[in-house]
Amino acid sequence: MYSPDSKDACLKNFPNPERPLNPNDAPYSATLPEAMRNFRNALGYELKYLKAGAAQSADDAREELVENFVVGELGKKVYGNLRLARTKGVQPQVDWQRARAITEALASVLTENYKWREAAAQREAEIACLATVEPESESCEDELAPVAERLRDVMRSGARALGGFDAAALYMLNEDTTALRTAALWRLPDDRFLERPRSLQGARAEVEALLGSAVVLNDEELAEIWRAPEIFPCSVCIPIISDSAILGVLWFFANKSRKIGSRETEILDLVARRVVDELEKNDRRMALKPRVNRAEREFDDEELKKWVDDILGAND
Asked: What is the pTM of this model?
């Protein structure tokens, strides 16, 4: 699956691991566009969300009634800005000061929302990282701080290197290898972190991947039959496996069918290695905690067959 000759070609698609992370990578919010449309319809003012650092347009500079409200905390982390402006040809339902007050309150609510969502993502990433080390190992809390952002960074880079995939998700096995819980997301709603762990019972794609093979589903109907966690026209599932443990699976999703050839399989292999590195890099001296030991599985065919039958159903 992985060719050393093509290593350099694949590596150029990924950022340097020591590269400073973008502090303005706000959590994905699926409901924000609809909220802004409702704001415009109800109040008669235009409301837009701009990423931090976005340049002001020439039209904005000419407008008298345009104001930006920070989403985040100046001097700490700024996620973006809410841009309030008059809607041309529309009669406002409230005066400018009232619209300002409402927008300022919305910016505060968004700031709190993003902080809670990032905290949830960080918690899951820390759990995923700590689950790979022995409980008696020394604490690495300070080094864990950016792990959620690093995992998102790897998934985002991998999706782009594969050729425009639109979303990704990392799922980690529980202790008894019967379920997968969400550990990291890129461009998927953060409420996925609130969902219960997904059972492996009947999850053919993920069981196949956990046995060591990449799974490609280029059809929404197949994605439903194979129990993909998200239904997209194209889904790719790869195993996340360290030297001594099967840790979980990583999914990539695209809004149109994609061909997965030799170049893509090499990139997928590199992405999997990078994810394992991020989970282990906090302290290279920490020993991995083997939950599903690969060597044991390889030498005990009967045990492996029983595990697959228990998950998929003997007659399925």
From this structure: 0.58
